[in-house]
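Propose amino acids for all 677 sites.
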């Protein structure tokens, strides 16, 4: 079974953090005169009809999506700046003698990837040792053992992660594994669009096999797609997998053997270096059992073809251009409607982020992080904590026993900003200047051995699941931590010169969002210590569920693509995070105003109006239809338009700020508005 890194973190779309008080601002903000580029607005649109278009309509009309991207907007464009900076640092380092060992690893990994002529000349030779191992498999016991090694695909994934009922220690997990298409829906949904995608997927597999000179490519591709389709039928939906109770199924060796004996658990776990664990936590028992049955029922050669195809596909970018182009033609053009491949240097920087990320992060932090930024961000986090405390204390739907537990969880929140206190040591990872594929396999092996080195020791709370150079943020329910990397703390998401209303609307809303994950429909099931434990009274839980279900129904009704709706329960956690986070951020902003006085009107906008406009601008974004379709089918985040319109229409303060009235398209009667807090 392919090893995985279990994170348990709820990764979120964007982080926006706080600014200095007005008195401390001495520079102009990077965007517009007060932190938002008002030229992007379309003031011909009524705010109450389409607030997203009102705030960003000119940008939505005029801004192109770059040819090498499936999306555009701050969250997709800002990483370009970070990537350019990382490229500069790496290329400068390549010119310097006597660099530290970790810098030499970065330079060599990047150099091997950028050596297109060398990759072309090597042909399929770098892949031969791995393909030969697959071809040499003579029985299903050997098949299962090979599947358990890093770099090889499998129908289930075994990995190491925090035990969600005892998050002080690591545990072994077994889960359904990813397939070649983004989600099970692509294999199973009817309709001409999905028929065309499935045909293109089959043709892509044929192309890979033909490039590798594998005989009977068409027949093998048909058998492979049929195999994955059978697995997809038994896999759990993304919505069902969000249930942390349903996916927590600890089993001992006897129970595992009864569930799926085909995986030879004792031998397999030992082969992976896990020894003989007392138990394994199974994520989706029925899917794991079905995968085991498929191992038994299908011929050995079908599974060897599965391994071969997945190896070629997963590593096509490290092989000659024809393989790389074939992969992009399907995954880029067909699935995401992206016309052009990203420049090679950009892809190289992204590979560095994935495989030597914290080594790169050390270089990035030297030039892009200051203690002053950390102080400002930490101050805003505490302001949001105070706002949440007030809301929890006054939540009418929460009874006193539940309120006491909620306040304890809030007090225990562990915020981290900027960068780790200690970085991963990559010195044991062998990096070749001449073999990009070998480097990719070495990185996978390194990550697995790194996880093994931590198991079964106590959890290390200092570890990060994002790099300092990542434009993003996350909440981890098992650690009750919110984390904001350094690269996220730049304009438009962090600008010390911006109007406070803007910083609270952008940065405050995202801090609130991350903290709110501790109380969303999934995160609320974890207590102050990160344990999966029901700490809610029945009455409070029932009243909370009424609010949550109402929000899910609202989002179920949205139809971004004809015939494809937002999945209200799949996106519920993120939607609750958005709504609760914006409520808390507004309360924090009003606390700021109470301390510093009502702000002036700027460019015709009040402070409250600027707050909501900033929130809308923080979700600037548009997507190609293919990428949007994939998001709707499998992603827990709603599209940006609905993260704005679908949220503000539930906030009474937004109605007052923009005089939204009955008859406006976004208007909801007060009794239909959902309030998390």
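Proposal:
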């Amino acid at each position: 079974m392919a090893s995985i890194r279990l994170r348990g973190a709820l990764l979120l779309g964007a982080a926006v953090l706080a600014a200095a008080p007005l008195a401390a601002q001495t520079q102009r903000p990077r965007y517009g005169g007060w932190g938002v580029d008002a030229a992007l607005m379309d003031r011909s649109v009524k705010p109450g009809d389409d607030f997203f278009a009102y705030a960003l309509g000119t940008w939505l009309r005029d801004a192109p999506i770059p040819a090498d991207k499936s999306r555009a907007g701050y969250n997709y464009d800002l990483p370009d700046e970070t990537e350019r900076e990382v490229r500069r640092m790496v290329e400068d380092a390549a010119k310097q003698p006597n660099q530290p060992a970790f810098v030499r690893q970065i330079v060599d990994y990047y150099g091997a990837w950028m050596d297109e002529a060398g990759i072309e000349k090597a042909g399929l030779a770098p892949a031969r040792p791995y393909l030969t191992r697959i071809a040499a498999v003579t029985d299903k016991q050997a098949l299962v053992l090979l599947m358990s090694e890093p770099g090889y695909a499998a129908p289930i994934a075994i990995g190491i992660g925090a035990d969600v009922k005892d998050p002080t220690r690591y545990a072994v997990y077994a889960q359904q594994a990813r397939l070649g298409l983004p989600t099970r829906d692509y294999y199973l949904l009817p309709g001409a669009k999905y028929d065309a995608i499935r045909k293109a997927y089959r043709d892509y597999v044929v192309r890979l096999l033909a490039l590798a000179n594998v005989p009977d490519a068409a027949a093998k591709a048909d058998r492979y797609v049929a195999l994955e389709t059978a697995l997809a039928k038994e896999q759990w939906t993304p919505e069902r997998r969000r249930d942390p109770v349903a996916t927590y199924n600890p089993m001992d060796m006897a129970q595992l053997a009864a569930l799926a004996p085909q995986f030879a658990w004792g031998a397999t776990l030992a082969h992976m270096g896990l020894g003989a664990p007392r138990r394994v936590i199974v994520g989706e028992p029925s899917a794991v059992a079905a995968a085991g049955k498929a191992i038994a029922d299908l011929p050995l050669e079908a599974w060897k073809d599965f391994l071969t195809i997945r190896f070629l596909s997963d590593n096509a970018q490290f092989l000659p251009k024809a393989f790389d182009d074939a992969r992009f033609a399907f995954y880029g053009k067909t699935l995401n409607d992206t016309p052009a491949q990203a420049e090679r240097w950009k892809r190289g920087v992204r590979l560095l982020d994935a495989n030597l990320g914290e080594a790169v992060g050390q270089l990035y932090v030297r030039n892009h992080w200051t203690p002053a930024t950390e102080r400002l961000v930490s101050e805003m986090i505490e302001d949001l904590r105070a706002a949440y405390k007030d809301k929890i204390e006054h939540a009418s739907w929460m009874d006193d026993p539940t309120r006491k537990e909620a306040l304890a969880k809030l007090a225990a929140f562990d915020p981290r900003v900027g960068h780790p206190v200690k970085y991963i040591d990559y010195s044991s990872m062998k990096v070749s200047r001449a073999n990009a594929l070998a480097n990719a396999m070495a990185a996978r092996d390194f990550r697995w051995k790194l996880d093994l080195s931590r198991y079964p020791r106590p959890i290390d709370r200092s570890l990060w699941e994002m790099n300092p150079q990542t434009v993003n943020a996350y909440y981890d329910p098992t650690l009750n931590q919110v984390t904001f990397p350094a690269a996220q703390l730049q304009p438009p998401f962090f600008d010390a010169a911006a109007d406070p209303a803007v910083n609270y609307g952008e940065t405050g809303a995202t801090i609130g969002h991350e903290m709110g994950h501790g109380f969303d429909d999934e995160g609320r099931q974890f207590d102050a210590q990160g344990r999966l434990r029901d700490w809610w009274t029945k009455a409070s839980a029932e009243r909370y569920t009424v609010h949550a279900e109402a929000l899910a129904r609202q989002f179920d009704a949205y139809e971004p693509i004809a015939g494809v709706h937002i999945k209200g329960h799949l996106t519920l956690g993120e939607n609750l995070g958005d709504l609760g986070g914006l409520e808390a951020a507004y309360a924090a902003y009003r606390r700021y105003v109470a301390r510093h006085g009502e702000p002036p009107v700027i460019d015709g906008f009040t402070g409250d109006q600027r707050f909501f406009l900033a929130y809308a601008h923080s979700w600037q974004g548009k997507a190609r239809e293919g990428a949007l379709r994939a998001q709707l089918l499998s992603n827990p985040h709603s599209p940006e338009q609905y993260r704005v319109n679908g949220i503000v229409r539930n906030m009474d303060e937004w109605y007052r700020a923009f005089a939204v009235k009955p008859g406006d398209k976004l208007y909801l009667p007060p009794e239909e508005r959902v309030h998390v807090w």
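The longest helix spans residues 572-596. Residues 2-26 have pLDDT under 50 and may be disordered.
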